[in-house]
Amino acid sequence: MDLSGRKLFIANRGEIAVRINRAAKSLGMTVAQGYSEADGDMLAVRLADQAVEIGPPHATKSYLDIVRVVEAAKSAGADAVHPGYGFLSENAEFAAAVEAAGMIFVGPSAETIARMGDKAKAREAAEAAGVPIAPGSDGRVETVEDAIEAAKGIGYPLMIKAAAGGGGRGIRVADNDDDLKRLVPQARSEAEAAFGDGGLYLERMIAHARHVEVQILGDGQSAVHLFERECSLQRRRQKVWEEAPAACLPQATRERICAVSVRLAEAVGYRGAGTLEYLYDPERDAFYFMEMNTRIQVEHPVTEMVTGADLVAEMIRIAFGEPLRFEQSGIALSGHAIEVRVNAEDPASNFMPFPGVAQKMRVPENVRFDTMLYEGYAIPPFYDSLIGKLIVHGSSREEALQKLREALAEMEIEGLKTTLPLYRALADDPDVQADNTTTKFLEAWLETNAIKAA
Amino acid sequence: MAKQIRSPLPGIFYRRPAPDQPPFVEDGGSVEAGTVVGLVEVMKSFHEVVAEEAGTNVRFVAENEQPITVGVVLAEMD
């Protein structure tokens, strides 16, 4: 399909806007970049053919303002809108508004976003497609009494989750009926305030779990998987270090988790790039569906490094109506990739945000560094602290780790406090080297190793 | 000369703990050293702004949800 001359509006900022720009240019497209008043100097604006201001610094008044973003894209004469991750990327109303304005939304349909974005409905869809789910409530729980009744079949400890939530927000853990009585009303009002939807559901807490997720591409008719990622190293439920593939999975389990993911994607007629997130219990060799993300993810590069696919370019092609360009048999795993998220935060000071000015940078050769930085760039304080992603690839996990250690030793960003020291310490840690981690690992590790990460 | 409360951080200034709650300190109110007068949201994390000294008749110069830089005067007081 020839997309040359077609115009893509990027409704995002930071490193992902730069990444989308690169994919669009590789397809010969023209790029219009949306930006807030605080982002006039950002790299994605400099790289774009055209830039349109979309409002004040605060994201609710710019990047999250559906009316303004759609107007900006329309005024730029865009054929399509790419939402990136975060902001409006999983907002069904936004997807519908883009289409209603006569443009293409780069992602699934508004209906699919609404369905898979509701965690309780997504669980139901997963169960219907034969995907294992953690024991939990049958859809939403409306009252404390319902919750206590449902808890009998689930068992404690369990998690109270917001149906409209995601990214780990609003999760509470209950150990008994009394906890439920106390926490359900709290969780309901918090979910109501945060998401405008107080719906809750319950799910069994899996101790010692690993986070494994499967990358999907679908064209609305059929779907393929691009294998899985392992993202157990998390702080405050935010991933900080991701790998592909998940070395902890036995081959038979890998085949099963990827196959059921394709089944679920096809069952919902999935179009675009998506990720199915699971908890994996290594002791039982069992996995449980958690949620689906209906967008490109921060950690997509590790999948690109082990499969050779350009996920962002593929999702643009699919959005313009091109059928999948891969057969499942044509997608092979090659080697091992690791990504670390570099944040402008000070690990020596409880990860205090550090929105400074980037000075001289030394980025090693033979690594991939997806970044928004350039020398002299002043990082605005209004947005996420992610400033770049360092990605390495090796023929094995050991080789990838070795390359990561070398790259981290060489890498330098003057003028900023960053989380690079944390990754230097983690890359030297015996448990990380032995792949002996769970989703609880990093926070416990930080309790005793804070000094090493500083 | 009026005393000043300055922002220790850049970001977005909030006068209320949550949109549906009253301000930490009303205009014309008074503070002790250590009283929380607002929040600054910097890179999605919230940090309290505290008065470093006691004062009366607090007059906010910065508006709720205003983007601010380090050292900007948030309020004046006697």
Automatic annotation (TrEMBL), chain A:
<dbReference type="InterPro" id="IPR005482">
    <property type="entry name" value="Biotin_COase_C"/>
</dbReference>
<feature type="domain" description="Biotin carboxylation">
    <location>
        <begin position="4"/>
        <end position="447"/>
    </location>
</feature>
<keyword id="KW-0436">Ligase</keyword>
<feature type="domain" description="ATP-grasp">
    <location>
        <begin position="123"/>
        <end position="320"/>
    </location>
</feature>
<dbReference type="Pfam" id="PF02786">
    <property type="entry name" value="CPSase_L_D2"/>
</dbReference>
<dbReference type="InterPro" id="IPR016185">
    <property type="entry name" value="PreATP-grasp_dom_sf"/>
</dbReference>
<dbReference type="GO" id="GO:0004075">
    <property type="term" value="F:biotin carboxylase activity"/>
</dbReference>
<protein>
    <recommendedName>
        <fullName>biotin carboxylase</fullName>
        <ecNumber>6.3.4.14</ecNumber>
    </recommendedName>
</protein>
<dbReference type="InterPro" id="IPR005479">
    <property type="entry name" value="CPAse_ATP-bd"/>
</dbReference>
<dbReference type="InterPro" id="IPR011761">
    <property type="entry name" value="ATP-grasp"/>
</dbReference>
<keyword id="KW-0067">ATP-binding</keyword>
<keyword id="KW-0547">Nucleotide-binding</keyword>
<dbReference type="InterPro" id="IPR051602">
    <property type="entry name" value="ACC_Biotin_Carboxylase"/>
</dbReference>
<dbReference type="Pfam" id="PF00289">
    <property type="entry name" value="Biotin_carb_N"/>
</dbReference>
<dbReference type="GO" id="GO:0046872">
    <property type="term" value="F:metal ion binding"/>
</dbReference>
<dbReference type="InterPro" id="IPR011764">
    <property type="entry name" value="Biotin_carboxylation_dom"/>
</dbReference>
<dbReference type="InterPro" id="IPR005481">
    <property type="entry name" value="BC-like_N"/>
</dbReference>
<dbReference type="GO" id="GO:0005524">
    <property type="term" value="F:ATP binding"/>
</dbReference>
<comment type="function">
    <text>This protein is a component of the acetyl coenzyme A carboxylase complex; first, biotin carboxylase catalyzes the carboxylation of the carrier protein and then the transcarboxylase transfers the carboxyl group to form malonyl-CoA.</text>
</comment>
<dbReference type="Pfam" id="PF02785">
    <property type="entry name" value="Biotin_carb_C"/>
</dbReference>
<dbReference type="InterPro" id="IPR011054">
    <property type="entry name" value="Rudment_hybrid_motif"/>
</dbReference>
Automatic annotation (TrEMBL), chain B:
<dbReference type="GO" id="GO:0006633">
    <property type="term" value="P:fatty acid biosynthetic process"/>
</dbReference>
<keyword id="KW-0443">Lipid metabolism</keyword>
<comment type="function">
    <text>This protein is a component of the acetyl coenzyme A carboxylase complex; first, biotin carboxylase catalyzes the carboxylation of the carrier protein and then the transcarboxylase transfers the carboxyl group to form malonyl-CoA.</text>
</comment>
<protein>
    <recommendedName>
        <fullName>Biotin carboxyl carrier protein of acetyl-CoA carboxylase</fullName>
    </recommendedName>
</protein>
<dbReference type="InterPro" id="IPR011053">
    <property type="entry name" value="Single_hybrid_motif"/>
</dbReference>
<dbReference type="GO" id="GO:0003989">
    <property type="term" value="F:acetyl-CoA carboxylase activity"/>
</dbReference>
<keyword id="KW-0275">Fatty acid biosynthesis</keyword>
<comment type="pathway">
    <text>Lipid metabolism; fatty acid biosynthesis.</text>
</comment>
<keyword id="KW-0444">Lipid biosynthesis</keyword>
<dbReference type="Pfam" id="PF00364">
    <property type="entry name" value="Biotin_lipoyl"/>
</dbReference>
<feature type="domain" description="Lipoyl-binding">
    <location>
        <begin position="3"/>
        <end position="77"/>
    </location>
</feature>
<dbReference type="GO" id="GO:0009317">
    <property type="term" value="C:acetyl-CoA carboxylase complex"/>
</dbReference>
<dbReference type="InterPro" id="IPR001249">
    <property type="entry name" value="AcCoA_biotinCC"/>
</dbReference>
<dbReference type="InterPro" id="IPR000089">
    <property type="entry name" value="Biotin_lipoyl"/>
</dbReference>
<keyword id="KW-0276">Fatty acid metabolism</keyword>
<keyword id="KW-0092">Biotin</keyword>
